Amino acid sequence: MAAHREAAHRKPRQRLFTGPAARTAAAVALAGAATATALEGAAQADPQLTPAQVKAKVDRLYHDAEVATEKYNGAKEQTAASEKSLDALRDEAARRTERLNTARDALGSFATAQYRSAGVDPAIRLALSSDPDEYLERAAYEDRAGDRQAGAVNGVRRQISDLAQLRERAEDELEVLSSRRADLKKHKDAVRTKLADARKLLATLTAGQRAAYERSADAAHGGSAVRAARDVPRGSVAAPNARAAQAVAFAYGALGKPYVWGATGPSSFDCSGLTQAAWRAAGVSLPRTTYTQINAGQRVSRSELAPGDLVFFYPGVTHVGLYIGGGQMIHAPRPGAPVRIAPISEMPFAGGTRVA
């Protein structure tokens, strides 16, 4: 009984506010929660980045953009291959369709002629012949005509089947092409996003801070192309063969040209575009991306490098340059940094490849 009275005594306390009072209390509670959230968000907001932090983030964004660029280059190469394959399939389908139509026309003409002469059975026409030699000759002709007709029909059937298979292959290739185009767009968007983020970060710096960043980046990448070219004379280390010498000569000729992602020359380059163009000038065809170029020849150690060798950097093999001897390479570093000479020690070395 006492427990019952105690429970009854507690019941009114469960409804402190009703009606307008309850709504007022709820509004106050929500406002308080919103204020607390805002204060918490303000407390968690990133502080103003220092120039050093901006530099570190920009460098990382440029590196990420280069990773995305190589993926874009690979997707672009695959897309071009799919487009070429699809065009070849469509051309073959057009040729086979033309041959099929010709065969159908011939079969139609044969059927029309047979229909016109179908009033008399072939056996009766042959039997009515009074000349035995003529009978045998006509009989052989009719057999051959029947064989030709059957062969023509079978030929048309085969062509229809082959054409259907060819069109099915073209549809499959079209699906592959659509997928590769989607990959191409994804990687292109990734590059553009990374570069736009880098530009936004650089815009937070003062003009003097941006100039200091460019000077530090220039020093980290081996200085200006003109100064580097003067510091490392051409021919100071002999190339092992004529083709390697041609590739090196091309790279020297590209010094000072701008870095443009996805570019393979002649007026601008990205890193793998430069090495591909250099060896193309020497008559050697290299694949498009860093991660395929590293397998385009014989692997060599850092101590075995010779002018003309490809040198690769970072664990994901995302950057490449052309070795010119003396611990130096010519490479296309990043947006805003033109083709230049730099020490191979400036980045994490991932491997070397001797092309020819």
Automatic annotation (TrEMBL):
Coiled-coil residue spans: 72-106, 153-187
Domain (NlpC/P60) ranges: 241-356
Entries under PROSITE patterns matching the protein: NLPC_P60
Keyword line: Coiled coil, Hydrolase, Protease, Thiol protease
Signal peptide residues on this chain, from the entry's feature table: none
PANTHER family: NLP_P60 DOMAIN-CONTAINING PROTEIN-RELATED, PEPTIDOGLYCAN DL-ENDOPEPTIDASE CWLO
Top-level taxon of the source organism: Bacteria
InterPro entries for this protein: NLP_P60_dom (IPR000064), Papain-like_cys_pep_sf (IPR038765), PG_Endopeptidase_C40 (IPR051794)
Keyword set includes Coiled coil: yes
Record has Flavoprotein as a keyword: no
Pfam families on file: NLPC_P60 (PF00877)
Family affiliation: Belongs to the peptidase C40 family.
Organism: Streptomyces atroolivaceus
Name of the molecule in the record: NlpC/P60 family protein
